Amino acid sequence: MKILSAPQIRQADAYTIEHEPIASIDLMERASNAFVDYFTRLFGTKNKILICCGTGNNGGDGLAIARLLSSMNYEVAVLVVRPNKEAPGSADFEINYRLLPGIIPLTEINDNTQVPEKFNTDIIIDAIFGSGLSRPVEGLYAFVIRAINQSQAEVVSVDIASGLFCDTIAAEGPIVTPHMTISFQLPKLAFLLPENDPFVGEWKVVDIGLSSDFIADQKSKSHYVSSSDIKKMLRRREKYSHKGTFGRALLIGGSYGKIGAIVLSSRACLRSGAGLLITHVPQCGYEVLQTAVPECMVTTDASFEYISELPTIQNYQAIGIGPGLGVQEMSLKALRELLKDVKNPMVIDADAINLIAQNDDLIDLLPANTILTPHPKEFERLAGPWENDLERLDLQREFSKKHEVLIVLKGAHTSVSTPEGRVYFNSTGNPGMATAGSGDVLTGILTGLLSRGYSARKAAILGVYMHGLAGDLAAEKLGEESLIASDIIDYLPHAFTSVSAEKYLIKKK
Ligand SMILES: NC(=O)C1=CN([C@@H]2O[C@H](COP(=O)(O)OP(=O)(O)OC[C@H]3O[C@@H](n4cnc5c(N)ncnc54)[C@H](O)[C@@H]3O)[C@@H](O)[C@H]2O)[C@H](O)CC1
Ligand SMILES: [K+]
Predict the structure, then answer these.
(1) Which of 225, 235, 282, 489 to pair with 43, CA 20 to 30 A apart?
(2) 17, 110, 159, 218, best to mutate for ligand 1 pocket (most atoms within 8 Å of CB)
């Protein structure tokens, strides 16, 4: 799913009106219906609702929502915020103003003294500003937003929290801090920047039927990975296949006390479709691996405690290195040797990333399309510091372009950047996955998918999605608190089948 900028959304709006064609007021009605449809699934008629409206189209939505909810027996009141008494609202605001039934209490406020001290309501629907915000909020609007934020009510924003820009980090000036945002058609970039979290809350995108042709034609550097994107990517295991078909994977890692990391990667790699896996570990890991992962073959290093040399690396469709590796001098030597020789698709994680960050010569040795999987601290070691999330995103994009690698920056909405400068935000995963070994599992999945023949871009997007989905399925059963990395592996088969089963059903029709 593409992420469009506020100006692109405005154009999509205008294009739909002209080409569907549909009257702008009818499109507003459709959007309001879509909002109400989702809202009423979450909140019953027992709740008292106050709808705070600006006088643009976001406010117009608010008025239509008020009318629709009232017709469904919700107890609704409307507050219109209009600093300049004489200024008319947008055309569609004014139409919906006239359509507002008399039974809905309507208050208009024009200056700060009229802002109620306390909102006596269960839910506030925030429809002051939407995607048309053009400058930070001040004056009367600021007063109202502060009052909304201080209220005890549950706050639901229409399209986007009032005061938040669609395409960037939070501006100065007050911004609504909603519990939930119900947004139209496409997610906004602002929803995916962690520091905006207080101004987004939970969010849901509802379809309002903007032109799919127009959206398909738009250039966008940012994408949000949806389950339908994933279904299109997933390959079928062909009937006449054998274990060689799915490729040979090599994992390198582990050190004394950290053999568990490479065990997790190995198990995840095999669960992600690799045909054959060879895991290279220091000698101390031999029995552990053979016992914990009987399906993988094990080769051992000359060193007992650390990786100090490489096995042969030819004939592998994918190599993953890093989990549990450590940053010993001898392991650095082995990594340097690997990078000098390697032509295979590769995944680089954990201490292998730290070693690259500490040794400037290594980054240029990475083959094009290598996947690196840093968490933010590791990425900072690689690419330097940033001031805010938007800067971090730019840095990630630039790093990928400059070094022709894919960066999988781990976190909520893990972002995958490609050498073309595109960024794909993941839509699965939960806070329970912030647990030891979760990253090792991801490295295994990515290596497995690469060995299976997926391109680096597809392996990264798909792997991150499946990792998150397995974590979500595990959390559904086990809860987030107790989730451990092994659970993610245990639920990987369910993640793959849940996506592929739907896909094949679609294919059969
Ligand atoms: N996405 C769609 O296709 C649809 C969106 N709808 C809704 O329309 C809003 C966007 O409406 P718009 O009229 O363009 O802007 P706003 O309502 O967000 O703002 C109104 C108006 O306010 C002025 N303004 C901007 N910033 C400030 C400020 N800081 N202080 C004071 N005034 C400000 C500016 O002139 C704006 O134009 C979208 O979010 C949806 O809710 C449609 O209903 C359906 C189709
Ligand atoms: K809003």
Answers:
(1) 225
(2) 159
Q: Where in the chain is the domain with CATH 3.40.1190.20?
A: 240-368+422-508
How many whole angstroms separate alpha carbon 226 and alpha carbon 462? 10
* Inter-residue contact 469 to 379 (CB < 8 Å): no
Give pLDDT, residue 509: 40
Instruction: Name 203's bridge partners.
Output: 181
Residues 43 and 155: their CA atoms lie apart, in Å, by: 12
Do residues 374 and 355 lie in contact, with contact meaning Cβ atoms separated by under 8 Å?
no
Host H or E run for residue 155: strand 154-158
Atom of ligand 1 nearest to the CA of 137: 29
Residues near ligand 1 (Cβ within 6 A): 9, 13, 27-28, 31, 54, 56-61, 90, 129-135, 137, 141, 158-159, 184-185, 210
Which tens digit of pLDDT belongs to each residue from 394-406? 999 999 999 999 9
Confidence (pLDDT) at 247? 85
Tell me where in the chain the CATH 3.40.50.10260 domain(s) lie. Answer: 6-220
Q: Residue 330 in contact with residue 304, Cβ under 8 Å?
A: no
pTM across the whole model? 0.95
Please state which of the four CATH numbers 2.20.28.20, 3.40.1190.20, 3.30.70.1230, 4.10.520.10 is assigned to the domain occupying 240-368+422-508.
3.40.1190.20
Residue type, 434: A
Amino acid, res. 466: M
Query: Does residue 325 have a known ligand-binding role?
Result: no
Number of residues assigned to the chain: 509
For the cut 90, the answer to whether the pLDDT of residue 243 exceeds it is no
Report CA(22)–ligand 2 centroid distance (Å). 23
- Please check whether the domain covering 6-220 is classified as CATH 2.160.20.10: no
Residue range 271-308, pLDDT digits in tens: 998 999 999 999 999 999 999 999 999 999 999 999 99
Neighbours of 71 (CB within 10 A): 11
Ligand 1 centroid to Cα of residue 6, in Å, is 10
